[in-house]
Amino acid sequence: MFMAASTPARRALVSACLAGVNCRYDGGACSSPTVMELVRMGRAVPVCPEQLGGLPTPRPPARVSGDGRAVLAGDARVTDAQGEDVTIQFLRGAAEVAALAHLLGARDAILKRGSPSCDPGPAGMGVTAALLAREGLDLRHEDDLAPEPRAALPPVGVKWWLVARDGPVFGAGLRSLLEGIRTAGTITGAALAMGMSYRQAWGRIRLTERRLGMKLVDTRAGGARGGATILTPGARELLDSFRGFEREVGEAAAASFERHFSPR
Ligand code: SF4
Hints:
The protein is α/β, with parallel strands linked by helices. It has nine helices and twelve strands. Iron/sulfur cluster is lined by residues 15-17, 23-24, 48-50, 112, 115, 117-118.
């Protein structure tokens, strides 16, 4: 996300060469990563007034005697390095860009500094820039853009489950339940520690056993201290494997979170 003094609410026009289009007089571009990102996000539309005015690429560089406002008023001309008068093409290109701005409802333009067409001024304003300013657009040059500070997200966790075709089979909830059974020695004790009912806990175990096709707990009735529940060897192995998996995925997720969400 990017913004300048204020973020354009609708699509802005941008000088096409800033968006990486090879439309400059010398056949090159002057790419701005910020402008390219705006175009990629659908927030800006690239235009090259000199090409739209019918000039070829490459083409001789041009200069304005005076500035774009004087050209619009008929008080100045645009000539290229070969002495050719290209005022008509510059005016045509400016009109095409203004028509596009109207079509798009654009209110902002981000324009290449130093161009006889695009320079947004105020000193040395280009011909297209002058027309867009007259049409009420807010003009900026590429250096006005700064990366928008990324909001710091509160610390977050990531949850994941092992999933089979018919649904989740193992995740952090079941891991805690099995750990609780290992510690408490009963399903009731583990369920209590997790704030769930015996019925819910037993239901989750049964569902997982069905989905995995293996027994997770052995329940032994009776004895001086009442019934007990222990994990099967398969459940203990599954628990250990899931913990290792959880640790590694957690580390990878934390690194990825840092890369993508930490403030710039
Ligand atoms: S006319 Fe504007 S968009 Fe086209 S090359 Fe020149 S500065 Fe870039």
